[in-house]
Specification:
The chain has helices at residues 3-10, 20-25, 47-59, 65-68, 93-114, 130-142, 153-162, 172-181, 197-212, 225-232, 234-243, 255-261; strands spanning 36-39, 42-45, 119-124, 148-152, 184-188, 217-221, 244-249. It is an alpha/beta fold and 262 residues long. It has one domain: Rossmann fold (3-Layer(aba) Sandwich). The strands form two sheets. It has a five-stranded parallel beta sheet with strand order 4-5-6-3-7, sandwiched between helices. Strands 1-2 form a two-stranded antiparallel sheet. The chain is globular, with a radius of gyration of 19 Å.
């Protein structure tokens, strides 16, 4: 297994490989899928050729067992209390989880039908099922041969930073372009990082690009909207709110801890 595949396996990245029918659907506005751009007497390779190479490498990574078994059928509402609430007049934990699952399924259905750019944000405490639900979305789309990229945000940012210290086959631009242009991008654990101006700019660039090109994001975060404003910046949060429907998830006990007690 090559180094990029090892990295992708280790960090839970996965895309569906292109099929012949998928390839026919690819449309690069720069080269019209020819792979070469001609200007006068000059001809040079289009950046989409390198991007497709990156995506094919991504496709060689297997979905980890941890994520591969995350499906809507396996999502267990029993972990969510039908009585507890975040506030007196608010919905119960169970009702919030039911709404999140319904929203996730609706996102998949709408994307399969319309390829809508509207995404979803799953917000809640550690162990509340956000990553499980994001994995269920990924698997549902992959079953229909859609291209999905599942990124654990802190690991992805660390890997981009790592390209500065060593010369590898892929550059920062290669990794960013793959994330920008995949059909559906899943950003897991947004905010779980020591954010600096550099990391804020990378996340803004990624979110802003996908918003401008009508490409959906599925985002999970432990942070509230107010905390996200502080950590990743108000301009990024503003765009996330514009392109994502927000669902809150909450549990009394971390589901991972609860499962270990069984």
């Amino acid at each position: 297994m090559d180094k990029i595949s090892q990295y992708l396996n280790r960090h839970y990245l996965k895309v569906r490989p292109d099929t012949p029918s998928d390839v026919k659907k690819v449309r690069c506005h720069l080269c019209q899928d020819q792979g070469i751009i001609i200007k006068g007497d000059l001809a040079y390779q289009c950046h989409c050729v390198k991007q497709r190479s990156v995506m094919k490498r991504f496709a060689s990574a297997n979905m980890t067992p941890f994520l591969a078994h995350h499906t809507f059928d396996q999502f267990d509402l029993a972990f969510y209390s039908p009585h507890l609430r975040l506030d007196k007049d608010g919905p119960t934990y169970r009702a919030m989880a039911e709404k999140a699952v319904e929203g996730a399924k609706k996102f998949v259905a709408q994307y399969l039908e319309e390829k809508t750019g509207q995404g979803i944000l799953l917000n809640g405490a550690v162990g509340s099922g956000k990553t499980f639900l994001a994995g269920a979305i990924a698997n549902a789309l992959l079953e229909h041969d859609k291209q999905v990229l599942f990124l654990v945000v802190p690991d992805f940012l660390d890997d981009i930073r790592g390209t500065y210290q060593k010369q590898g086959e892929f550059s920062e631009a290669d990794l960013m372009n793959a994330a920008r242009n995949t059909e559906v991008l899943i950003l897991d654990d947004l905010g779980a990082h020591n954010y600096s101006e550099w990391t804020q700019n990378k996340i803004f660039s990624l979110i802003n690009y996908r918003m401008n090109h009508g490409l959906p994001c599925v985002i999970t975060t432990n942070l509230t909207i107010e905390e996200m404003n502080e950590v990743i910046g108000e301009r990024t949060v503003s765009r996330i709110i514009e392109i994502c429907k927000i669902y809150r998830m909450h549990v009394e006990v971390d589901i991972r801890v609860a499962m270990r007690k069984w």
